[in-house]
Amino acid sequence: MRCLEDWDFVLKVSKAYEIGFPPEVVMEALTTQGGLSSDVSGYFQNRLYLLRKYLVNYKDIGTLEQVLLDILQKAQNASLLPQVQKMMELVLKM
How far is it, in rounded angstroms, from Cα 40 to Cα 36? Predict the structure, then answer.
């Protein structure tokens, strides 16, 4: 994965340990043109990879619908909703 490695790490850890999130912002990210944070297609490819990888976990803890809605909302904001929906359908059929 070229981006979202931190998400993958947190999801791995959460399978073995109880985790939590602070209510306040503790870090801000800097997005630069040409950097991984600005790689929109890479972001969605990796979000869908993580969806597939942790699908059972999302179902088990009852967050699957929230994850799907988050991905679709971000796709809508990026004007990529039809493409992401098609990719998501393939991931969910696996």
Answer: 8
- Considering Cα of 23, then 26, then 30, then 35, what sign does the dihedral take? negative
* Tokens representing residue 87 in the block: 């990719």
**Three-class secondary structure of residue 59 per DSSP:** helix
Per residue in 6-41, is it b (16+ CB within 10 Å) or e — as a string? eebeebeeeeeeeeeeeeeeeeeeeeeeeeeeeeee
Can you read off the two tokens belonging to residue 93?
A: 């059929």
pTM exceeds 0.90, yes or no: no
Q: What is the pLDDT of residues 9-33, one digit of tens each?
A: 988 998 889 888 788 988 887 777 7
Dihedral over Cα of 57, 59, 63, 65: its sign: positive
